[in-house]
Design brief:
Elements: H1 16-26, H2 29-45, H3 51-69, H4 77-93, H5 105-122, H6 132-143, H7 151-157
Helix pairs in contact: 1-2, 2-3, 2-4, 3-4, 4-5, 5-7
């Protein structure tokens, strides 16, 4: 991800991508592998990587998140971020040009339901205040009409009791 991704940082002085996004990845294997899977996906689109790299990092991310869910820190920003990334990866892998000959509907639904539940347990999207980049990315998906953002999840994440706009 480019440091200039933060749309309101017109002077390019924000360090949130480095401190919050990549800083979180350094300390969490699930989040790191989910980011590596998105990087591999991007590289594959441009002919620079293989499907195997995407699938490898996706599997590693899933294994790490599944292990972390059983700990007291199971609904941390890092795990929510990993599941968010996995959800976007699953949506991407459903596109016909990947031609994987496998149904990603089950994995997509698992990540959709998991993300929904994790955000609910945290108190909604507005309660994710320790990692503003994660909150912003999820909010951007809420505002987006992109095919990569499944409506059922985002509707629940932004229900009035889960996301109070008056605080922002």
């Amino acid at each position: 991800m480019a440091p200039g991704i933060i749309a309101v940082d017109v002077r390019h002085r924000s360090t949130l991508m480095k401190s919050d996004w990549f800083g979180t990845a350094i300390s969490n294997p699930g989040f790191m592998h989910s980011l590596l899977a998105t990087v591999a996906l991007h590289a594959w689109v441009f002919g620079k990587d293989t499907i195997d790299a995407i699938l490898h990092h996706r599997a590693q991310a899933i294994a790490a998140v599944n292990a972390a869910i059983l700990t007291p820190d199971g609904i941390s920003d890092a795990n929510i971020g990993a599941v968010f990334n996995l959800l976007t990866i699953e949506e991407s892998l459903r596109m016909p040009f990947f031609d994987l000959h496998e149904d990603h509907t089950v994995q997509l639904e698992i990540h959709r339901t998991g993300l929904q539940r994790m955000v609910q347990l945290r108190g909604g999207l507005g309660a994710i205040k320790t990692n503003r980049i994660l909150q912003a990315f999820m909010l951007w998906c809420v505002a987006s009409t992109s095919a990569f953002c499944p409506e059922p999840v985002w509707h629940v994440l932004t229900e009035h009791q889960a996301f109070d706009r008056s605080r922002y």
